[in-house]
Amino acid sequence: MSLGLGSDTPQLRTPQPGSGISTPSQKFADIVRDVMRHHKHEKESEAHQIYRQVPGHQPKGLPQLVDPEEETVPGIEHPGSTGVIYCSDRAMANGFSYTSSHEWSNLGQGAPEVGPIPGAPERPNTIQMPLDSLEYAPTTGVKVLREAVAKLYNHTYRQGKQSQYTYENVCIVPGGRSGLSRVAAVIGDVYTSYQIPDYTAYDQVLSAFRRLVPVPTALDPKNKYRLDIEQTKRDIRTQGLQVILASNPRNPTGQVIRGNDLKELVALGREGTTVVLDEFYSWYIYPDRAEDYGKSISSAKYVNDVDKDSVVIIDGLTKNWRLPGWRVCWVVGPKNLITALSQSGSFLDGGANHPMQLAAVPLLDPAYVAIEKVALQRHFKKKRDHILARLHELHLDVEIPPTSTFYIWLNLDKLPPPLNNGLTFFEELLKEKTIVIPGIFFDINPAHRRNLFNSPCHNFVRLSFGPPLDDLDRGVDAIANVLKKARKSGMQAFGHSYKKSIEGPIEPAHV
Ligand SMILES: Cc1ncc(COP(=O)(O)O)c(C=O)c1O
């Protein structure tokens, strides 16, 4: 029986009453008992029960109350915390704080390291604030930045094409999630397709804007989580899908729709379907050939007419420029969409920070971008390869290694229960001062499920190689410790004794 703990793994050691020595058949019986004991249903898992106690995480259809005994705020419903808040809350319950964060390894963090990396240009450390910039910026953003974004897309993806983006095809937004919410707010009463697994925030975005009707499709690991374009076309015909939303490259699987598949997906935007692509990781592509460094992937390459093709691109400084704190992002699409986004921005967020928009303009210069992109790809590829090699040493091979993004979608199903489920693995790593993200957060709207154990993401965690290498190594050391503990003392040590969540305001650490 492979326990996925390595070829040198001793059998699971279940302490025997009495002698302390067990025969092989006793051992097998113990293993079976152990497996039986370790839950087929979320109700028997402490980690899952903690998750369910959070307001908004009860199965849908039940009242989402903080404490059913207490009076609730009239008319207020908890939307359910995002993976971000939940994981931060659990980390804090285990002693994480912003002052102790250096003692922790955050493999959960969905942010790239922001410091210098080899070969990358220096980033600005002062910001100008001319008097004009103290005024509101337009809700579509300042014109110079909109022009700079359009120019960069034309330069990178549309050379030689007749139809070119102009500033009127660009809306500046205060962050990617704001871009997503602005877009979701203007989607009408239509079927909107999304895939599982995908970026955690789609859960809340798709359920907060209640006019649109979300339609999920589970991506198949046997097909490397590829979006099946032929099936998508059939779904458009049979189900009447009008909008398709996907992150590409995809968080958390690290796979990317490219080449002909991307071309065909974009073509749907000429046939009555709106294709919304969240391209936040478009530079995080890891080429095999030296000459491919510096190339990135965007649907903009396959758009024929920038105003007629219904293709909506969301991107920004957050990941590619490694500037998550700037909150300067954009949506690129047909003019008619941009005017709608101006309207939704006028009540949702009021627009991006004016001085930061002005400061962003030089960063969009194609020459600057070319250098940053190559540096980023070399550096992150090295980190990816290092972490994959370390996981291999631990016999935790990644079945579908990432070809893009800075995420590893790790299947734990070969580990013995309860370590084989993402939520329990997450809780055990918190005891080792390491944060990962349980897979169920990428199962959009997980609380819907009556039994979280049935989620296709149940056995997974997402590891981020966004942080600097030393942090990553500490995190993998922590995983090694958990596996060592499993080898030494069996499974009794796992699946219980989790700290209660702390009361009070939660400061989210970004995931
Ligand atoms: C696919 C994807 N889109 C958007 C975002 C969020 O961008 P922002 O932090 O600018 O809101 C993230 C961040 O994790 C992401 O993974």
From TrEMBL:
<dbReference type="InterPro" id="IPR004839">
    <property type="entry name" value="Aminotransferase_I/II_large"/>
</dbReference>
<dbReference type="GO" id="GO:0030170">
    <property type="term" value="F:pyridoxal phosphate binding"/>
</dbReference>
<dbReference type="InterPro" id="IPR015421">
    <property type="entry name" value="PyrdxlP-dep_Trfase_major"/>
</dbReference>
<dbReference type="InterPro" id="IPR015422">
    <property type="entry name" value="PyrdxlP-dep_Trfase_small"/>
</dbReference>
<dbReference type="GO" id="GO:0006520">
    <property type="term" value="P:amino acid metabolic process"/>
</dbReference>
<feature type="region of interest" description="Disordered">
    <location>
        <begin position="38"/>
        <end position="64"/>
    </location>
</feature>
<protein>
    <submittedName>
        <fullName>PLP-dependent transferase</fullName>
    </submittedName>
</protein>
<dbReference type="InterPro" id="IPR050596">
    <property type="entry name" value="AspAT/PAT-like"/>
</dbReference>
<keyword id="KW-0663">Pyridoxal phosphate</keyword>
<feature type="domain" description="Aminotransferase class I/classII large">
    <location>
        <begin position="105"/>
        <end position="479"/>
    </location>
</feature>
<keyword id="KW-0808">Transferase</keyword>
<keyword id="KW-0032">Aminotransferase</keyword>
<feature type="compositionally biased region" description="Polar residues">
    <location>
        <begin position="8"/>
        <end position="26"/>
    </location>
</feature>
<comment type="similarity">
    <text>Belongs to the class-I pyridoxal-phosphate-dependent aminotransferase family.</text>
</comment>
<dbReference type="Pfam" id="PF00155">
    <property type="entry name" value="Aminotran_1_2"/>
</dbReference>
<feature type="region of interest" description="Disordered">
    <location>
        <begin position="1"/>
        <end position="26"/>
    </location>
</feature>
<dbReference type="GO" id="GO:0008483">
    <property type="term" value="F:transaminase activity"/>
</dbReference>
<dbReference type="InterPro" id="IPR015424">
    <property type="entry name" value="PyrdxlP-dep_Trfase"/>
</dbReference>
